[in-house]
Amino acid sequence: MNSDSQNIGSTKPYLIRALYEWCTDNGLTPYLAVQVGAGARVPMEFVKNGEIVLNISFDATSALNIGNDEIRFKARFGGVARDILVPIGQVSAIYARENSQGMAFPVETADESAEIGEANNAPAAEDQDEPAKASKPTRLQPVKSK
């Protein structure tokens, strides 16, 4: 049973897609809060304190694809068309602009992303299992209000 649970994918992309659909079905504007890190392609001039909030509504984006590993779309920033790429692990929240209802998520660090990619199949050299177990409870705590 333990080996099966290691192969189960994250619920995060599914929850992001569900909340995006909920926003659009209710005429709300979905906003995506992102902790910008390696692999993200966003307009850096709009990043503040390592975070950017993106309007991912139908009117603000084209070719939006919320995949299991990344979110991709095209959008205009200051009149300039940009290709945006956000790794799912860097999404800290999705919420409606109008009422702030949505969901916050833990943000993966580069080390955590690599660990997840290896599916914890590596031997416990350097006792990496213990720090990972210790960090998981903190990843599930509520994210601070913005």
Structure description:
The structure is a single chain. The protein is of the alpha+beta class and 146 residues long. It has one domain: Roll (SH3 type barrels). The chain is built from four helices and seven strands. About 19% of the residues have low confidence.
Key features of this structure:
single chain, three-stranded antiparallel β-sheet, 4 helices, 7 strands, four-stranded antiparallel β-sheet, SH3 type barrels, alpha+beta
Strand content: 25-35%
Kindly report the name of the CATH homologous superfamily: SspB-like
How would a crystallographer describe the biggest sheet? 4 strands, antiparallel
Report the CATH topology name.
SH3 type barrels
Helical region count?
A: 4
Output the strand order for the largest sheet. Answer: 2-1-6-7
Average pLDDT confidence is: 82
Q: Label the structural class.
A: alpha+beta
Distance between the termini: 39 Å
Number of domains: 1
Label the overall shape: globular
Q: Which CATH architecture would you pick?
A: Roll
Low-confidence stretches: 114-141
Order of helices and strands: HHEEEEEEEHH
Rg, rounded, reads 16 Å
Q: How many β strands by DSSP?
A: 7
